[in-house]
Write a structure and sequence with these properties.
92 residues, globular, disordered N terminus
């Protein structure tokens, strides 16, 4: 019985660690911005947008984000955060 409780705790901790490892993008600008993202080993680039003053999980790293309006680009690994400020993206 104790072993199953410990296993459940370990599984719950592992799942929460995996979900918190995603790359997060924070848009500190008040305007919504069009961006391109490329995450993980895939060669696929996704066109999307992020609303102003929000935070979003963008995927499993490494992730590269490009702000279309300024062509500013930055890359982050799992567990790292990116921030958009004044139209430019950088590691936080």
């Amino acid at each position: 019985m104790k072993l199953s409780v410990v296993l459940v705790f370990i599984l719950a901790f592992t799942v929460s660690s995996i979900s918190s490892a995603a790359v997060k993008l924070r848009n500190s600008d008040s305007d919504s911005l069009d961006i391109q993202t490329k995450c993980g080993a895939t060669e696929t680039t996704t066109d999307t947008s992020i609303a102003g003053s929000t935070v979003a999980d963008i995927g499993t790293g490494p992730c590269t984000v490009t702000v279309k309006k300024t062509s500013s680009s930055a890359t982050a690994e799992d567990g790292q955060n990116l921030i958009i400020k004044e139209g430019k993206v950088a590691k936080e």
